Amino acid sequence: MSSTITISEPHLRQNIAAARRILGETDLLAVIKADAYGHGAALCAPLFARAGLPWLGVTDALEGAEVRKALQAAGFPEGPRILIMTAPPGDPDEANEAAELAVAHNLTPIVSAASQLAPLARAVAGTPHTLPIHVEIDSGMSRQGVPPGPVLRAFGEALLHYPKLHIDGVCTHLASAECTDAQQTLEQLQRFAMSSGDLSARADLMPAWRHLGNTSTLDNASPAAAEIIQHFALQTAQDGATPIVRCGLGLYGYSLPLEPDAPNEARLHSQLHPVLTWTTTVTAIEDVPAGARIGYSATYTARRPMRLALLPVGYADGLRRSLSSTNDEPGGWVMIGGHKAPVVGRISMNLTTVDVTHIDCGPGTPVTLLGPGATAEDHARLAHCLPYEILCGLRATYRVVLPDGAPTAGHAIA
After folding, report:
1. Is 349 annotated as a binding residue?
2. Which of 125, 219, 227, 304 has the most CB atoms lying inside 10 A of its own CB?
């Protein structure tokens, strides 16, 4: 169960620079929710702060409090600002606790319903400050957000009863940014602009920030999609607010594929460098004869004498069981000494067997589980899932940062 996740600050900075080249004057909100997509939010937050990003996005108030502590310990007592990206809990006790954490750790909650206002107002009531909130508008994803029209106007009226809550920002989420025709995205953008105007109609509700987007928003190079960021930024600035685009997966070195057979190339993907390397070492070596049955349910039978290496990681650590192999269906692989070592048989909870017949190695030899030659995209393709799922599922014993200026063996995604 011993494995290490190493975070490359040079690669993180290169990915930030690539995103900024596409955005121009519009800045980034770095999404570090779900423990920074498995990279470690407490490790990554100070790296984003050093890169000068003004905002970080977390899952909930508890994660936000831990990130704030990590930033303070790293010498960033005031910034970046931290946005709670999931609406407050529905349970009253949990909502009150989350509101108190938000006030205590200078977090900015997203609000998506009028019923969520009262716990936040109670938490800030005994302080000399107001609590900034961001209002999420459901522009067409039908997931989280205040619906446009009468419900949104009623929300604005309800907010007037809570003078210590201040609308600092308004946002929405794009459902189909990876689609090249961008029709749904354009429709969402129009609804968002109209709804933002409804809130901004009153001077006391004028939000300072507007934000939307994701990695696919930056990556999609179709003519219609490429205009979206420019149009959004221009319109937001004309309304007196500051535009910002959220980005998560791309900052860690990956992006989603655009829709199949898309005629347009991705803008961001080829510039990205995976930030995370996941490694372990060989536990033991075993030579088995032809005919040996390997792993649970004997799904793999050696057809020749083989040398096997035992690794101290399995599906409980994030190495997907769907990367297992049979004699008829090859599975995943790891990298040892620059060579692919195929998974043999079923991946167990905390152990995995790989074929090293062709590799010179022994107990203690370094193994790359995710990194150059075995990327999260490789794993996702074999496991029929998304890179998000691979990265968010990692459970390493140790996490370390390769600092800016240090040499790195990583590479850009081909």
Report:
1. yes
2. 219
